[in-house]
Description:
By secondary structure, the protein is of the alpha+beta class. Helices cover 35% and strands 28% of the residues.
Amino acid sequence: xxxxxxxxxAYANARYEIDLGTQRIVRRIGRRDAGADAALRTAGCRRHxxxxxxxxxxxxxxxxxxxxxxxxxxxxxxxxxxxxxxxxLGRADDGCWPExxxxxxxxxxxxxxxxxxxxxxxxxxxxRLGAAPTLVWTR
Length: 139
């Protein structure tokens, strides 16, 4: 299996957790979830949402300290955009390879793509209320 195929499989099978404050929801690529959509809507999402991480660019593991520094810069970038965000965590079902990030509500897709590219990400998650989340490749 090629590296790209292995990455695609890993991303497609990952859990994408969103902390909405009062509850944590899990989204998965290709799976609709009306209950999660309702929770997102209650939390303030109106149309669509994105999960982006600054950690482990191009899916190459960095040290915890390097990822922490990237998360701090990422938080500042999100604040500068003035986007409505919630904390997120992407990880495999067995808990390995956790990546903290943010769920961004209702931003313009090209701006989110630019952010993911700026942090060297191979892909990010895009969701639309009422539809199954998809993976967006940055290349």
